[in-house]
Amino acid sequence: MAPPPPGDPTAATAAESPPEPATDPGRDHKWGFGAFLFVFAVFVLSAVVINALIGLAGPDSTDSIAVILVGTMVPTALATLATLLVTRIRGNGPKIDLRWSYNRDDLRVGLKFGLIGLVCTTVAAAIWTRVVGEQDATSSLGRLVDNQTMPVAAAITLFLYVWLVGPLFEEIIYRGLLWGALERLQWGRWAVFALTTAIFAVSHLEPLRTSLLLVIGVPIGLARLCSGRLGASIVAHQVNNFTPALAVLLISLGVMHS
């Protein structure tokens, strides 16, 4: 086709008109706070069922390695699976609904807030241990593996879960699903940050450690708040969990005691 002659206004219009913008997929998901309540119910009920089955198996079974691994991992894994299903069935999928991404900015923001959190958590844990005493300062997982030497494979599995997989699951639930549910209620961003941090701490169901968990949750929540994406808070949570995961590994191998 021959080009339009010089001075033809159609040429200028074609040159100046911007390209058509890409169609943005819909972000108006149909799930809300009720979805979080459903997911949390899955977590609690699965934990109750597992504990009941352990009780039926007899008192000696509570110290078995399989019970420690199953009781630690399965309830959170089932709750995470329920979260992903909710976003698929009632929304646009986890990548859009949960703002789930991994890029260089997520890594940078996550590392920054994760390292800040690691320092804050270490200081807070030392103060908190002085207040409550060493006997009560141990987490529920620490008490489970204390004096329970595990095979190397099981100990490494638990280490990787506490360090990498557990934070991924928890972030999907709390700063993915819960955060999105509160945003859908048109809460302010700082209110969403505050409430998700509080619920994150309380829902660990360790009343004595709630204040410490609040300190842990603040920098992780700030990573989500400042980046606007889930990937940053996942990285921050994983960085923050490295030290406790290493402690669990050493305890479960019998190298140190809680």
What does this entry look like structurally?
- Keywords: Membrane, Transmembrane, Transmembrane helix.
- The chain crosses the membrane at residues 35-58, 64-86, 107-128, 148-166, 187-205, 239-257.
- This is CAAX prenyl protease 2/Lysostaphin resistance protein A-like domain-containing protein.
- Residues 155-242 form the CAAX prenyl protease 2/Lysostaphin resistance protein A-like domain.
- By secondary structure, the protein is an all-alpha fold.
- The chain has a domain at 95-253.
- Helices cover 74% and strands 0% of the residues.
- It contains 11 helices and no strands.
- It is globular, with a radius of gyration of 23 Å.
- The relative contact order is 0.15.
- The model is unreliable at 10-27 (pLDDT under 50).
Q: Calculate Rg over CA atoms.
A: 23 Å
On the 0-100 scale, what is the average pLDDT?
A: 85
Order of helices and strands: HHHHHHHHHHH
List low-pLDDT spans. Answer: 10-27
Region (Disordered): 1-25
Transmembrane segments: 35-58, 64-86, 107-128, 148-166, 187-205, 239-257
Protein name: CAAX prenyl protease 2/Lysostaphin resistance protein A-like domain-containing protein
InterPro entries: Rce1/LyrA-like_dom
In summary, what is this structure?
By secondary structure, the protein is mostly helical. 74% of the residues lie in helices and 0% in strands. α2 packs antiparallel against α8 (152-184).
Compile the SSE list and pairings.
Elements: H1 9-16, H2 33-57, H3 65-90, H4 94-97, H5 104-132, H6 134-137, H7 140-145, H8 152-184, H9 189-202, H10 210-227, H11 230-252
Organism: Actinokineospora terrae
Pfam families: Rce1-like (PF02517)
Region (Disordered): 1-25
